[in-house]
Amino acid sequence: MTTDAAPHLFSASVETLLARADELCAKRHVRLTALRRQILGLMLEANAPLGAYDLLQRLQAIQGNAAPPTVYRTLEFLMEFGLIHKIERLSAFVPCTHTLGRAPCHEHDADCVHASQFLICRNCSSVTELEDPTILASIVTASQKSGFRLQHTTVEVEGLCAKCVALA
């Protein structure tokens, strides 16, 4: 597999987010390689949750020699560095709109809790990422009462998005 192929060009808005991802990776002393950039760009371009095999098909359309292990390793890297999230309910991945959309409010350290909250539409499978500090505060308080050391939270809430409610 080669990652030196000419990069797929994305829209200006996606390129801006990819530049932000590149800055975040450099700050953490890791590289957003051409392949990582390509897969993240495909996810940003899709504007919808994508499964690993959906990503593989999109990647193969650009560079035909991509294989499943390559995609899975890339997804693991992107998750590890907070650039994407896995939506367990859908077995799909979405870009982290909060990490890519603005500068993080602090540097991540061992005691930092990464909190993800998602609204998942049962009808159209759209996913909206929330950033509600009161949800995290409630979880932290409940965890502390139990003597549990919290490191990561993901809250997935299922229902109908505003668009699907309007159609009903």
From TrEMBL:
Cofactor: Zn(2+)
Organism superkingdom: Bacteria
Recorded coiled-coil stretches: none
GO cellular component, one term: cytosol
GO biological process, one term: regulation of secondary metabolite biosynthetic process
Alphabetically ordered keywords of this record: DNA-binding, Metal-binding, Repressor, Transcription, Transcription regulation, Zinc
Cofactor note: Binds 1 zinc ion per subunit.
Binding site for Zn(2+): C121, C124, C161, C164
Molecular functions per Gene Ontology: DNA-binding transcription factor activity; transcription cis-regulatory region binding; zinc ion binding
UniProt similarity note: Belongs to the Fur family.
Name of the protein in its database record: Transcriptional repressor
Natural source organism: Acetobacter aceti
